[in-house]
Amino acid sequence: MDESTQQLQRGLKWFGAASIVIRIVDVASVFVVWKFLSADDIGIAALCSSVIAVADAFTGLGVGYAIVQSPELSQRKFATAYWVAGAAGVALALVITASAPALAAFYGKPSMVALMAVWTLKLVFSGFLVGPMERLQRDLRFPTVSAVSLGGAIASTTARITTAMLGGGAWAFCLGDVARYGYTCLHSTAASRMGSTRSFSRDELPGLLRFGTPLMFSQGIFELYRQADNHVVAALFGTTTAGLYRVAKDLATSPLQAIMLVANRVAFPVFSRHAHSPKILADAFYTMSRYLSTLIGPVTVFLFIAAEDVIAVIAKPEWSAAAPLLRILCVAYFLRVNAQLFAELFRAAGKPRWLLFDSVLSVIMLALSYTVAALWFRQSVGVASICYATAISFPLVLVALIAVGRTRFGIAASDWVRSLLASMPVTLLAGALVWLSMRYGAPLVARGLGLPSSSALRVSLALLAALAAYAVNFRFTRRLRSSVR
């Protein structure tokens, strides 16, 4: 087993275990909060959080990637990156606070002003978090990074649920975010052994910005198109519909984001170490693609098949209109997650212009799709038209990324497709088990226990069926992890 595969496995072990716990904590807290909030509250929180998320992509000016990717990291370069990132976070917080009244006036929601002003504290913490966290990742200190992330999740969950139970409405998500980033900033700073940060150097600044600026803009554009749908839906259909849409989107993306977070944090430093060895880099890329395709398939089919019952159990039964949206978005984001690994390849290889290409192309395709959906299908299909637009745009971008990977990085399209097809056995098995458990298993169990066949029972059996598919496939995935073809 080569070095890159060992590093991937070690990172996946730590990040995988931590991310499972973090995602369980996060998702459980969101489900609890949903029970206390109205769809309008969720819609308002979605609009505010999407603005903050786009701004957050610009915190740090992209210098965090330079910390991980640089072959040698001097203390002067690190200190310069730390202060640049922190100053950018403070500046962005001031800009968003100043623009909050205009956004609130556009949607007719005055409560958004104070909400966004407090939410900008996340940007300040995020800026000063860049240096310490990226240093931990550069040193491949996966256990420490996992502990920091877990602590942030616990802090967020505590603040979120407490605020919701006290009737705080959309403030639950705001204070949860601020608590997460505040804790993560303090913990990572203490754990990273930063050394002196007094050695800021103007000489180091041009090199950091030269590498980081294209990455910053690519990430900013990525977040723009990732969050734009929230504002499109709110503008066309109102904040209540936006809340239902956000419920469907969160359900579709939350488990995939947890998996992708693990993949990104592990893949980037490992890819960076082998950026100058094309054969090893390509093999590591195929290996990570196999991991991803094997992990995300069962989650996707579970949500697709059990959509109505999942929403009835974890949200509110009256929000059943979100179920068709959830199914469409499951397919859309399954395709997008498989494409996102290309971004880590571009970063690690020091090719930020291809990240810009990915982001700009994605924005263009999404804008065209949304325009067509709004003009021609808004009246007949409703908010589902936005979901269909998302599902159509992602495959088109994926085709372009495959072409870039083949011509610029030696990634063979056929080998990459085979990596994705590695998920088919477990995905098909999961789909069959989930459907059988809901169609036949739930009624049998209900009759045996003398209980009605409720949504909770169907979801429980479907979830167990999906987990059973992973268990049956365990030996297959172990063989997969120990080989790189």
What brief labels describe this structure?
485 residues, mainly alpha, 2 domains, 85% helix, globular
Question: How would you describe the overall organization of this protein?
Answer:
- α2 runs antiparallel to α9 (205-237).
- The chain has two domains: 37-237, no CATH class; 252-485, no CATH class.
- It is an all-alpha fold.
- Residues 480-485 have low confidence and may be disordered.
- It has 19 helices and no strands.
Overall geometric form: globular
Give unreliable regions as ranges.
480-485
> Distance between the terminal alpha carbons, to the nearest Å?
11 Å
Average pLDDT figure: 80
Radius of gyration: 22 Å
Order of helices and strands: HHHHHHHHHHHHHHHHHHH
Q: Main β-sheet, in a few words?
A: none
| Overall number of strands | 0
Q: Helix/strand/pairing class, anyone?
A: mainly alpha
Tally of helical segments: 19
**Overall number of structural domains:** 2
Strand residues, percent:
under 5%
> Percent range for helical residues?
over 70%
